[in-house]
Design goal:
- The protein is mostly beta strands and 617 residues long.
- The chain has a domain of 52 residues.
- The longest helix is centred in the N-terminal third of the chain and has 22 residues.
- This is WD40 repeat-like protein.
Length: 617
């Protein structure tokens, strides 16, 4: 597979005529697809296909994570089991376990970095300069971190002007109802992150979301319908979004995309439906008028949500246009985005689980859905595509970035068929979401892991280096968004230890490092108790002063019911001392990382409310 990619690269460098190059790519793609399928077959049984589209020692490198290791929670469970079984006797040296050093034993490379960041060692020549303060604050992790609880997230979209951040998720009884929540970014209060929700009239959970800055609309879609909500009233202090449109999209269940000239597109299998928003029927000034005919449950099919009385009954407006993908009637999209330099072109990532095809394609919708060029190199379904739209400097006008369920992120130049950079976004099985940002024109890549490493990694693209990890409070990263005007990163995250009823499981008492007591809202040492191997530590006992080092004993504060006030997931990838601030979110959470040179790095989120399971509950 690497040899095939090398052949394509050599053909590009040799300026092979375009028609011949496209023919080469078209013939190479099914061969690579079969190779990827073989990786997932019984003979190989990979959790994800290894990277094959990079060039060893060449111009398209593969950046691996130097911190690949077994998660601390899994390792601790293994040692506990082996000890109880009598196989291990006595403590195991830390160097044998290959545990990372505690954060406080490391030398911080920069004085104003958030304690929720952990830098990689041996950093060399990062890409910022004295004239790029925004890039400097990002690459030095000089940021304030705030958060707010959200529904279990499915997708996120930030408007092109940075006015609103909208999220779709699962809420209600057993997470069977759709949820639309938003953060109003254009408000005057920039010190706090506040997420609000609005009632959604869809019948089923909505997986797709999009925004329109010009018309001040948020779009959210389930399998059958699309609804839009007007946010213009937020500018006058109103907290509600007004229902505006309902569009009927049966047969088109894929992602949404805002096109030029006020058109909304939704992908279906081998085709795209397009609605012209200007002149489209609305729900009226109060948001209550029926659009189309009024449907009931029997006509609309089974509804997944239990609060069916909240379902709005409009059948919706039909699309104005359907564009067929004549080159591939089976093409089913999982994500798409506009070309960074040509809005008539659309970059399309396939739903590879359905199609068993792994290449990306760029389509000209203005030319009737014509295939323009194909991109190779992914080993699974593409989850996210970000571009350098609106960038006036650097290479952003030709560059796009992808996250993929093979755990890797890739950066492409639209003039080349293979990635120019591949990075290991998640060191184990699981999807990777990726975001390419350009603070002061300096390309910075953020990758978020959806299963294993439970953090966000920051990469300096020009230096080809991993710079640091950002804590997500042991949560999995569902999606990332960048607010360039405010130099701010947003991450929607889900708590793996929270069930569909909102309860937490597989938690234990947290071991707060002693050096953090009295900081970050933690009580001082004398306000709690030490829970050690020999029983509780009495802070009044002077004979225990020798044990005041961070020796593995845990500090536990209990509430009036005797429950631990601070808890930690049993299977957390990182231990409590991995970051400079011990923090567990304990809930589905939206994080805001606001980068600036004068950041108050003591601004951190409040500790989560997860609890230890009790037998009497």
């Amino acid at each position: 597979m690497q040899n095939i990619c090398t052949t394509i690269r050599d053909a590009e460098q040799a300026s092979l005529p375009r028609a011949q190059l496209e023919e080469l790519v078209r013939k190479a793609e099914p061969v690579l697809d079969k190779g990827i399928e073989y990786c997932y077959g019984d003979d190989m049984d990979f959790n994800s296909a290894p990277s094959f589209a990079h060039s060893n020692g060449g111009t398209s490198p593969f950046l691996k994570d130097s911190r690949t290791r077994i998660g601390s929670g899994i390792l601790e469970s293994f040692v506990t089991y082996m000890t109880k079984a009598g196989i291990l006797r006595g403590p195991i040296p830390q160097d044998v376990l290959d545990l990372p050093k505690p954060w406080n034993d490391l030398t911080a490379p920069f004085p104003n970095s958030t304690p929720l960041a952990r830098f990689y060692e041996n950093l060399r020549g990062l890409s910022y300069t004295s004239t790029t303060p925004n890039a400097k604050s990002v690459l030095q992790a000089s940021c304030e971190v705030t958060s707010d609880g959200i529904a279990n997230p499915l997708g996120m979209a930030i408007s092109s002007g940075g006015s609103i951040l909208a999220m779709t998720g699962m809420s209600g009884w057993k997470e069977r109802s759709p949820c639309l929540s938003y953060a109003w970014l254009a408000g005057h209060d920039q010190d706090h992150l506040t997420v609000r929700g609005t009632e959604v009239g869809l019948a089923n959970v909505a997986y797709h979301i999009e925004t329109d800055e010009q018309r001040k609309l948020v779009f959210i879609a389930d399998e059958d319908r699309i609804k839009s909500y007007d946010w213009s009233s937020l500018e006058t202090g109103n907290r509600d979004l007004l229902p505006k449109h309902t569009m009927r999209s049966q047969g088109f269940t894929g992602p949404l995309l805002m096109l030029p000239n006020g058109r909304l597109a939704r992908a279906g299998k081998g085709k795209v439906a397009v609605w012209g928003l200007d002149g489209l029927q609305t729900h009226g000034p109060q948001g209550t008028n029926i659009i189309g005919r009024e449907e009931d449950d029997e006509e609309g099919g089974l509804w997944s949500r239990d609060d069916y009385e909240d379902v709005e009954r409009s059948s919706g407006s039909r699309s104005n246009q359907v564009i067929q993908f004549a080159f591939d009637p089976t093409l089913k999209l999982n994500t798409w985005n506009l070309h960074p330099n040509n809005p008539s072109m659309v970059l399309c990532g396939q739903d590879s689980m359905s199609t068993r095809k792994y290449g990306m394609v760029m389509v000209d919708l203005e030319a009737g859905g014509k295939e323009v060029v194909r991109f190779l190199g992914h080993g699974a379904t593409v989850t996210k595509i970000t571009t350098g739209v609106g960038l006036e400097q650097g290479q952003g006008g030709h560059v796009f970035c992808t996250g993929c369920t093979d755990g890797m992120a890739r950066i492409y130049d639209v003039r080349q068929r293979l990635p120019v950079l591949t990075v290991e976004g998640d060191s184990g099985e699981g999807a990777c979401t990726a975001l390419l940002a350009y603070p002061d024109g300096i390309p910075v890549l953020f990758t978020g892991a959806m299963s294993t490493t439970q953090c966000i990694r920051t990469w300096d693209v020009r230096a080809k280096a991993t710079v640091y990890e950002l804590s997500t409070g042991n949560n999995e990263t569902n999606d990332l968004a960048w607010d360039g005007a405010r130099n701010t990163l947003y991450a929607s995250t889900s708590c793996p230890g929270m069930n569909r009823m909102g309860g937490t499981f597989d938690y234990r008492r947290a071991r707060i490092p002693k050096v953090q007591l009295g900081r970050f809202g933690f009580p001082s040492r004398r306000d709690g108790c030490w829970d050690g191997d020999e029983g509780d530590y009495d802070p009044e006992d002077e004979d225990d002063d020798a044990d005041m080092d961070d020796d593995g004993k845990s500090w536990v504060q209990e509430d009036d019911d005797g429950d631990a006030q601070y808890c930690w997931p049993k299977n957390a990838y990182n231990s409590e001392n991995y970051f400079g601030h011990t923090f567990d979110a304990g809930d589905h959470t939206l994080f805001r990382y606001k980068f600036c040179q004068d950041a108050n790095v003591d601004v951190t989120p409040p500790y989560g409310q997860a609890t230890v399971e009790r037998d009497d509950w």
